[in-house]
Amino acid sequence: MSDALRMWIEVVFNVSYLIVVWTMVAVMVRRMDRVAPAQRELAMRVMQAFALLALGDTGHVGFRVVAYATSGLTTSVELFGMRPTLVGLGALATATTVTIFYVLMLEAWRLRFQRQFGWFEFALIGAASVRLAMMTLPINDWGAVEPPQPWGIYRNLPLMLQGLGLAYLVLRDATAAQDRTFSGIGVAILVSYACYIPVILFAAQIPLLGMLMIPKTLAYLVIGWLAFRELYGGAPQMRAAIA
């Protein structure tokens, strides 16, 4: 695949994704008053999670589109006396928001299955705190187009713990409760990481692996759609038997 073709595929996908995810968030906000009172707090956490995801990805993929339309991925801007690249700033934005996204989705899991946080859940929140702290270090070099290695791998390890830990909790409880919506959400989280991990580990050596970010992003849209369909779309209410 030529670099030009790959660029156009990325640009078209990025713009389409942003339109879809922001539309989904906007409809969630507009339909909040239709959500059953018993599910409103859960619906609010899902909406907050996806609004945050959309915001971070607007910086991430949106800045990449702007960079392609100007001087390329090395396009930089003046900011506090420094000249970081748009791509680097976008990477920082999405790295921050996706970390908090998984904290909010962990809270959504708690509300869905009426659970209490134990040591494992607090460990996942701790992983989010560690990741946010790691992202403040100068070694991240957020002004660069490509993340520094192997630090780019290290800073993603807590995020992997967050996502895979959440998938375990969701699938465990959804399977026990025969909850098809959250079973689908758990599977979609696993699919997203099956696509994301090879990119983190090997994309520097094999750039074409970056295309796996497309199915990874689609997996997030599936998560949003499943939650939207049940909480906001008039699907059957949450099972009272869930404990």
Question: Could you please describe the fold and organization of this structure?
Answer:
With 243 residues, the protein is mostly helical. The chain is globular, with a radius of gyration of 18 Å. 31% of the residues are buried.
Please state the structural category.
Answer: mainly alpha
**pLDDT average, as an integer?**
87
Strand content: under 5%
- The count of strands amounts to 0
Question: Which term fits the overall shape?
Answer: globular
N- and C-termini, Cα separation = 50 Å
Order of helices and strands: HHHHHHHH
Main sheet specs? none
Helical segment tally? 8
Return residue spans where pLDDT drops below 50 for at least 5 consecutive residues: 235-243
Question: How much helix is in the residues?
Answer: 55-70%
Q: How large, in whole angstroms, is the Cα Rg?
A: 18 Å
